[in-house]
């Protein structure tokens, strides 16, 4: 805790060389704030007396500003506080989340500029968050960030699971390497994307997962990215010091701010147990409480969609192949020749609606329903879509009526092609169109280069756009799932209508050449820490050429692994992404997708190791049912779990969907076995996991069920 | 006219070296289109057999495109047409406008690229317009303009009235020089502006007015600038060849297009009588007909405003001086200390409403009514205004009610500070707010650098924004008067709710150090050709220090010159810009401003010479009254006009407001004389015009009037 003796000394205006220390509630983490000899703010972080962050400097350079905001500070004031409370998310892994931290806020004064800067630290038992605050003051009103200089000095050449730093995409496979090896691996790690801008051979993205030689797991990310540019990390690979590297705007500036204001939180999750990392709620806790008064419109969604057939090339988003380019409001679609492969046609959509209704899904996503897809990406096209005009073969009203008659929603789709002004111009109409036609959720997309031209996907300007869409959607009681937007930073706590994001390599890449088989065992340690991902799992047919003879991609996953993802990749929005006919072929396995819950009272991480395995157990919200999911990585493994999360003395029926012994993500992905057993809180499971495999378990109280013939596990 | 023999040869696919010629309806202008030996399209223009445009090339460079669109063309087709019709503008200098031209459209094929390009020429008796058209074709869909290479090869080292080429402002005094002298005068011609970007020592803006040594007046401008970047002219001052220089976007690109599409028209007005230039309707004629179905909401507006007092520094737009910066939605204005100088307060606005009502004005403009003015420019501030929240001392509803009770409108003011995204986000609400609170006209402003950052005031992106505002305003039946927007190009024909623009150095500069006394004798030859200007004339107190002791600016104009502007600077929107107390001091002169019409059946330019003098006579719409205005330049002159525009045999009373013999814009600007005389169509007037002076005449039929004691002119 904060040392009172030090605070006292401040009253004598002693230069703030004495350190401020702060411990986490359970004492496992300790941080120290101090000013270096040159008046630079700096901090350290220790976990169980081991150094996690070596002395690391904090500060800024402003544009066209004579004084660097990096040195020459003195400590004017320091205050501490302790918070321990709970809050209930609208949806989540837990029905109640504890927010417990000790806080230190240091007020610094720079003699030369006479400016005041506050740095606020919040130390939780599982990590640290800190941010900069610029109070209202005469000496600092409008300012432009040239660079934020926040250091994270590592205590060793850790192992990292990283993706290349990039201003426009996070859709990369993760590389695992020592920090010192990043530079050598960078070029090969940058795979093609429709919009990408890398910036440094040692630049990586957050959230960045690391592990030290002595077994400490360290994760760096940010929380509450609002009207600021997205932070990357650039590594000094001689000193093993990361420094913040903000995403620039069209002119290379990194942020326009105006006091009073504050930066996002910079977060460092730390534990010697990897399960604590994936379970951490620091990032949510550092976000503001919910700002939506009436959240009754927000609900978890399990859905199917007219989507995978276009991703694989079996059908098309576009209605015609006849025109080299189309113009909204000009092209007369009633006069063009249809290509005969348009996925979003009435008949096909009805087929999905029927399938959704029959199998208990909430909704059907339909992409390619609206005009403009003939030349939708790669042209920096301004007025690319209008979001309100359907193709001739998609009858908005009839399909809405049909779906409603079966108690199914259609999920709206707003691909923007990165043309943010165009989307904003239509936004009010588009959301009103949704209100008028029975849509309550929208998937948006930002494929390709951002417009206004010169801006990046992750610059302040565009971050501000994504946030605008969230807030405008909330006004219309619309749930939003934004793809190709900036990676989430826990904003879904404040705006729980943000029920999903992409912002990582999702299942689509399995149809674009395949992802690494351990990709899904990295995501919970990285991408998912900021918020749920619309990963779109549930692929049962791994040979894509069966859908499209021209597409030879292979889904690097076993079928059982696909089932496990519904539990391991937490999201209130879960798709069953494959085609109805594939689910019909594997109806017994499909039963798990039909059964699995998507909102939870409790979550337990039973096993976790980055890139190797993640096993989670979750209790369905308001029910006694539990679901377990476990994914492995490149190699086969044996999972050992016990069921002590179950109510003591209660018997349950567990249905285990697992890889068959001969299963392999590449050669035999559809080999699975399903067995039913009785379990209780004393049960233990030893389960084979194939390469690229996994298993899923549904667990329901046996009371009132037919348990005849079932054996104990 | 088009030579039939040449057209015939095309059927044999002869390379298009044979020239296509076209004459204007009266034969005074003749143009020739041909292909150079290298297949470059080129044209010439002759006026009464004198060369106006020497052979000048036409073409484009596209970005990342292997084939330059400049050479290698063959003529595939050529068609001619003749149009002679009339149309009625919603408001204008004439109640009916004749559109009479011969047209030549050449279809060119580029062998290498297989692309087709159409160039369409329209030759009027007073000038030429031509544009490029890109038909829909497989070989050209999306493309990016690296540069448009449209040449205007001058036949001599003409005298030009020019302002520096600039991507962000037209608010410059005009320089008069030989073309060869532009380079030497450029640096001194670039005076300070809050946003300015010059690009070349020989770059100038359009409309560019020139005069040849043998007395031919030539004006280059453009018409129908829609979703394209604004054209400047860059001079090769060795060869005296101007070339189009488009305004770049944030990345330096000059336009994103998509076939089918067309460029704006490039216009060349030509005559040996300067009066034909100021009277030309080419630019309106080259724009599309009105696209607003119900134009009943559009009406001319004569107004006063809470404006000049802020411009001069007598009062302020801002409510408080207490804060270094404010934040919309954050700053609590009820808790700040007012500065006591806020102009838009209830009491002051009521005073203007009373004055407007008493003197027959339609409306009162009120600037500074809405929160955000404390740090409104110079900071690249994104969310700078919300356009819907009034300062605590401005009661929207009470003032609307008060104004309405006196049959006066309040003109809304939307300063955007160049923050176009912010304006677009609020636009729907802001226009609805106007509808809800009785406003039917808005003055918008774009002071300072454009946001998105990196864009320019005149780039395609921003041009597109201004157009969006016009069209959205029309949906709300709102009239728009945009300041600091791109200079007009006749779009008010298509969108007559665009009742005004600034886009040149307006009266405000008379309070910022003063404009050249002949400035108003240049504007009709340049800025006004594209559409009306909200010049805000009517300043009676030329010594600004009498309003604000700290402001020593002087208005370089006589009072009579100020009166003349209501006629010489045609606009359906005319302000009486000075303070009510100044009008009360000069009530006899003010009578002219009260009387003068602002919409016309007929207009005659009686005298005109760029930068020297302009004398116009206009017949009030639907009435028998005429108004004459005459402005001079730096030196005194004698104006000689006759009244043959009057109905024959009819007697009128003319009230002549003229400079007193001792008047001078600098030393004695308020010396004027008013006399009443009888005139008829045979009357002639010889009238003294002081340096920086002018005169104004109101002419009303004498029938039924008291003519006792009035002498014949």
Automatic annotation (TrEMBL), chains A, B:
<dbReference type="Pfam" id="PF10566">
    <property type="entry name" value="Glyco_hydro_97"/>
</dbReference>
<dbReference type="InterPro" id="IPR014718">
    <property type="entry name" value="GH-type_carb-bd"/>
</dbReference>
<dbReference type="InterPro" id="IPR052720">
    <property type="entry name" value="Glycosyl_hydrolase_97"/>
</dbReference>
<dbReference type="GO" id="GO:0016787">
    <property type="term" value="F:hydrolase activity"/>
</dbReference>
<feature type="signal peptide">
    <location>
        <begin position="1"/>
        <end position="19"/>
    </location>
</feature>
<feature type="domain" description="Glycosyl-hydrolase 97 catalytic">
    <location>
        <begin position="307"/>
        <end position="504"/>
    </location>
</feature>
<dbReference type="InterPro" id="IPR019563">
    <property type="entry name" value="GH97_catalytic"/>
</dbReference>
<feature type="domain" description="Glycosyl-hydrolase 97 C-terminal oligomerisation">
    <location>
        <begin position="599"/>
        <end position="700"/>
    </location>
</feature>
<dbReference type="GO" id="GO:0030246">
    <property type="term" value="F:carbohydrate binding"/>
</dbReference>
<keyword id="KW-0732">Signal</keyword>
<comment type="subunit">
    <text>Monomer.</text>
</comment>
<protein>
    <submittedName>
        <fullName>Glycoside hydrolase family 97 protein</fullName>
    </submittedName>
</protein>
<dbReference type="Pfam" id="PF14509">
    <property type="entry name" value="GH97_C"/>
</dbReference>
<dbReference type="InterPro" id="IPR017853">
    <property type="entry name" value="GH"/>
</dbReference>
<feature type="domain" description="Glycosyl-hydrolase 97 N-terminal">
    <location>
        <begin position="22"/>
        <end position="289"/>
    </location>
</feature>
<dbReference type="InterPro" id="IPR029486">
    <property type="entry name" value="GH97_N"/>
</dbReference>
<dbReference type="InterPro" id="IPR029483">
    <property type="entry name" value="GH97_C"/>
</dbReference>
<keyword id="KW-0378">Hydrolase</keyword>
<dbReference type="Pfam" id="PF14508">
    <property type="entry name" value="GH97_N"/>
</dbReference>
<keyword id="KW-0106">Calcium</keyword>
<dbReference type="InterPro" id="IPR013785">
    <property type="entry name" value="Aldolase_TIM"/>
</dbReference>
């Amino acid at each position: 805790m904060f040392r009172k003796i030090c605070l006292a000394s401040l009253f004598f205006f002693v230069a703030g060389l004495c350190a401020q220390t702060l411990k986490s509630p359970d004492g496992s983490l300790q941080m120290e704030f101090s000013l270096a000899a040159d008046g630079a703010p700096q901090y350290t972080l220790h976990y169980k007396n081991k150094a996690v962050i070596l002395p690391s400097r904090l500060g800024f350079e402003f544009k066209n500003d004579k004084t660097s905001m990096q040195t020459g500070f003195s400590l004017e004031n320091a205050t501490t506080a302790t918070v321990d409370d709970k809050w209930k998310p609208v949806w989540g892994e837990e029905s109640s989340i504890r927010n417990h931290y000790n806080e230190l806020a240091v007020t610094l004064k720079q003699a030369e500029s006479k400016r005041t800067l506050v740095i606020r630290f919040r130390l939780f038992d599982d990590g640290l968050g800190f941010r900069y605050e610029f109070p209202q003051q005469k000496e600092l009103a409008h300012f432009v960030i040239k660079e934020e200089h926040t250091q994270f000095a590592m205590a060793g050449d850790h192992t990292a699971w990283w993706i290349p730093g990039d201003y426009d995409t996070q859709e990369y496979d993760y590389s695992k390497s020592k920090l010192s090896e990043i530079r050598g691996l960078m070029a090969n790690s940058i795979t093609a994307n429709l919009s990408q801008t890398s910036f440094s051979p040692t630049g990586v993205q957050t959230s960045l997962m690391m592990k030290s030689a002595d077994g400490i797991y360290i994760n760096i990310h940010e929380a509450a990215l609002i009207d600021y540019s997205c932070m990357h990390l650039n590594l000094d690979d001689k000193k093993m010091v990361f420094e913040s590297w903000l995403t620039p705007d069209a002119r290379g500036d990194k942020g326009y701010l105006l006091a009073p204001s504050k930066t996002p939180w910079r977060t460092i999750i730390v534990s010697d147990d990897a399960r604590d990392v994936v379970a951490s709620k620091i990032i949510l806790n550092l976000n503001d409480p919910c700002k939506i008064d009436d959240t009754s419109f927000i609900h978890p969604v399990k859905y199917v969609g007219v989507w995978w057939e276009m991703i694989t090339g079996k059908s098309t988003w576009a209605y015609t192949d006849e025109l080299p380019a189309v113009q909204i409001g000009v092209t007369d679609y009633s006069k063009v020749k249809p290509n005969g492969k348009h996925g979003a046609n009435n008949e096909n959509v009805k087929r999905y609606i029927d399938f959704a209704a029959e199998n208990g899904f909430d909704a059907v996503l339909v992409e390619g329903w609206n005009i403009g897809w003939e030349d939708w990406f790669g042209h920096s096209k301004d007025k690319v879509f209008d979001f309100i005009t359907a193709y001739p073969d998609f009858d908005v009203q009839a399909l809405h009526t049909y779906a409603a008659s079966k108690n199914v929603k259609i999920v709206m789709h707003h691909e923007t092609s990165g043309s943010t002004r165009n989307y904003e111009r239509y936004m009010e109409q588009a959301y009103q169109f949704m209100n008028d036609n029975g849509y309550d959720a929208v998937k948006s997309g930002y494929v390709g280069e951002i417009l206004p031209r010169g801006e990046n996907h992750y610059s302040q300007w565009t971050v501000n756009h994504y946030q605008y869409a969230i807030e405008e959607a909330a006004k219309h009681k619309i749930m939003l799932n934004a793809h190709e937007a900036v990676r989430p930073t826990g904003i879904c706590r404040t705006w729980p209508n943000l029920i999903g994001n992409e912002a990582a390599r999702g299942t689509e890449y399995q149809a674009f050449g395949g992802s690494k088989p351990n990709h899904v065992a990295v995501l919970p340690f990285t991408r998912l820490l900021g918020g749920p991902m619309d990963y779109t799992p549930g692929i049962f047919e791994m040979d894509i050429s069966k859908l499209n003879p021209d597409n030879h991609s292979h889904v690097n996953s076993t079928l059982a692994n696909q089932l496990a993802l519904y539990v391991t990749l937490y999201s209130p929005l879960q798709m069953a992404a494959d085609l109805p006919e594939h689910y019909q072929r594997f109806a017994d396995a499909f039963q798990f997708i039909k059964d699995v819950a998507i909102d939870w009272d409790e979550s337990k991480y039973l096993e976790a190791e980055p890139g190797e395995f993640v096993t989670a157990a979750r209790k369905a919200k308001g029910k006694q049912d539990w679901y377990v999911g476990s994914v492995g990585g490149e190699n086969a493994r044996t999972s050992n779990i016990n069921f002590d999360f179950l109510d003591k003395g209660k018997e349950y029926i567990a249905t285990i969907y697992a890889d068959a012994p001969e299963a392999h993500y590449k050669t035999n992905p559809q080999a699975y076995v399903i067995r039913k057993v009785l379990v209780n809180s004393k049960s233990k499971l030893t389960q084979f996991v194939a390469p690229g495999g996994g298993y899923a378990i549904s667990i329901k109280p046996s009371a009132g069920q037919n348990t005849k013939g079932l054996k104990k596990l």
